[in-house]
Amino acid sequence: MNSRHYYLIAQLPDISSSGEKAAMPITEKYYRDLCSRFLSAEEMKVLNTLSLVPPRKESETGSQFLNTWYEKERNLRFALAQIRAQRMKKDFDQVPGSCTADILQAARTAVGMDSPLSAEQFLYGYRLSVLNNIRSYDIFSIDAVYEYGIRLMLMLRMKKFNRETGTASYHKIYDSILGEKI
Predict the structure, then answer these.
(1) Which position has the higher pLDDT, 118 or 171?
(2) What confidence score (pLDDT) does residue 63 get?
(3) Element (H, E) at 45
(4) Which of 33, 73, 119, 142 could make an SS bond with 110 (beta carbons 3.0 to 4.6 A apart)?
(5) pLDDT class for 166, splitting at 50, 70, 90?
(6) What pLDDT, in 10s, does the model give residues 79-115?
(7) Would residue 26 be called left, alpha or beta, if left means φ above 0 and alpha means ψ between -120 and 50 degrees?
């Protein structure tokens, strides 16, 4: 156990019980600032590349957890794109061979949902379950720090979704499209 990681993780607030409406107890900026006080330059370099959007091509991050997370997220995104392309009768053959049955099923379920918000909520739950399945057993490791960051970004992203705002935005776009055709 690295004592710097222990002191860092001990200071991070619990975000697992932050409900949809409740304010988050931490911001991404505060998380990164706090990490910068405890992590090495190399660890911070990796942390500063954390993203919910994985690199299109597989690349080594220096973290087994992040390598696994990005591979699963990349495969999910490719599966979603392939299923959407099939529905539109377009060719899309970029799904990697490592795309597992659970990823394909999650993508099919999400694409089959009636509303984009429901699909996003489903994918959010699926992504959290992936994080739970691949998380480090050592809760004071650098991978635990990275996992916290990914989880935080996912939760903050979901808090941005709002049914009323989304509906208003949809109607605005739809009305502008109709206005252009008239």
Answers:
(1) 118
(2) 94
(3) helix 41-47
(4) 119
(5) low
(6) 998 888 888 888 766 656 677 889 999 999 999 999 8
(7) beta
pTM: 0.84
Hey, what are 7's tokens? 């002191």
Token pair of 88, please? 């539109």
How far from 57 is each of 75, 97, 101, 144, CA to CA, in Å?
A: 11, 13, 21, 24
Q: Collapsing DSSP states into helix, strand and coil, what is residue 9?
A: helix
Q: What SS3 class is residue 47? A: helix
Instruction: Please count the CA atoms within 13 angstroms of the CA of 157 that sit on its side-chain side.
Output: 17
pLDDT in tens, 137-152: 999 999 999 999 999 9
- Taken in order 55, 60, 62, 63, is the CA torsion positive or negative? positive
Give me the pLDDT at residue 177, please: 77
Q: What single-letter DSSP state applies at residue 58?
A: -
**C-alpha to C-alpha distance for 92 and 79, rounded to whole angstroms:** 10
55-57-58 Cα angle (round to 5): 90
The sign of the torsion formed by the CA atoms of 41, 46, 52, 53 equals positive
Contact, 153 vs 17, CB < 8 A?
Answer: no
Give the C-alpha separation, 104 to 20, whole Å. 27
